[in-house]
Automatic annotation (TrEMBL):
Residues 50-242 form the Alpha/beta hydrolase fold-3 domain. GO terms for molecular function: hydrolase activity. The keyword Transcription does not apply. This is Alpha/beta hydrolase. The lineage of its organism: Bacteria, Pseudomonadati, Verrucomicrobiota, Opitutia, Puniceicoccales. The keyword Glycoprotein does not apply. PANTHER family: AB HYDROLASE SUPERFAMILY PROTEIN C4A8.06C, ACETYL-HYDROLASE LIPR-RELATED. Keywords: Hydrolase. Pfam families: Abhydrolase_3. InterPro entries: AB_hydrolase_3 (IPR013094), AB_hydrolase_fold (IPR029058), GDXG_lipolytic_enzyme (IPR050300).
Length: 277
């Protein structure tokens, strides 16, 4: 299956990152992190950070998809970052490179945490669709590391926030035709043996790319390991229902509130959500 939801590949306007930083140069491509800092931020801070990965089926996408989420979380006191990574249409790459870049981005952010006022032990990851896969992969997969990376630096996040993630890549799953030669080591749902972090999963019940049953199975596997997995369903909603668009704005706000409360429950945020109804 190679279809990409029309809600993927969004180019969201009206949100400007505080800074950009190149985390990796590969095959002539400079890959950037778009960093949103809290208003009263100082480099001496020890802030919680979250790194988001955009959706687009490993084929297309734009980091601006998560700029609204970054701006909101920065307003709540976190350092929030949205990453560029290689995709098929722009870079001619495979899904493997997406995960390699995701791991590189996490390692870079942890290695440079002191420069950005970040607590290196409080770096989280999030993403939507294939970006949700990339985020989950940083927490669960042992393979798919860039040859130039310093693998002594952990790429594993302290928590995950996943919006309709493609976290099962087995037969009958989205993208299997593209990863079938290595799917068993590529699928987060099949690599949950290393104490995955607390995870929030947000899903539309009418998602045609990732069946509801796969989300339920993931939660059951996590809980069988004694790990936290909060699963929220949104009745009648399709893939990409959470995006910052006029049509999807009620669900953008609803999912951001749930994300906020999940992060607060882990002591990464204080107080109640500030997003408007």
């Amino acid at each position: 299956m190679t279809h990409v939801s029309s809600s993927e590949g969004l180019n969201i306007q009206g949100f400007d990152a505080s800074h950009t930083a190149v985390y990796k140069v590969v095959d002539g491509h400079s890959l950037k992190l778009h960093v949103f800092l809290p208003p009263d931020h100082a480099s001496t801070d020890q802030r919680t950070a979250i790194l988001f990965f955009f959706g687009g089926g490993w084929m297309i996408g734009n980091p601006s998809q998560f700029f609204p989420h970054c701006a909101y979380l920065a307003s709540r006191g976190m350092v929030a970052v949205s990453a560029e990574y290689r995709v098929q249409k722009q870079h001619g790459t495979s899904p493997q490179e997406c995960v390699k870049d995701g791991k590189s981005a996490m390692r870079w952010l942890r290695a440079h945490a002191a420069e950005w006022g970040i607590d290196p032990d409080k770096i989280l990851a999030g993403g939507g669709s294939a970006g949700g896969h990339v985020a989950a992969a940083t927490a669960t997969l042992e393979d798919f590391n860039e040859s130039e990376d310093d693998c002594s630096i952990s790429c594993k996040p302290a928590a995950l926030v996943l919006f309709n993630p493609v976290f099962n890549n087995g037969p009958e799953s989205y993208g299997y035709d593209r990863v079938k030669d290595y799917w068993q080591s590529f699928s987060p749902a099949h690599n949950l043996s290393t104490e995955p972090p607390p995870t929030l999963v947000l899903f539309g019940t009418q998602d045609v790319h990732v069946p509801v049953t796969m989300a339920e199975d993931y939660k059951q596997q996590m809980e069988a390991l004694g790990r936290r997995c909060d699963l929220h369903f949104y009745e009648g909603q399709p893939h990409g229902f959470f995006n910052y668009t006029e049509a999807q704005m009620p669900y953008y706000r609803a999912t951001v509130r749930v994300m906020d409360r999940f992060l607060a429950s882990l002591n990464y945020l204080d107080g109640e959500p500030t997003i408007e109804d």
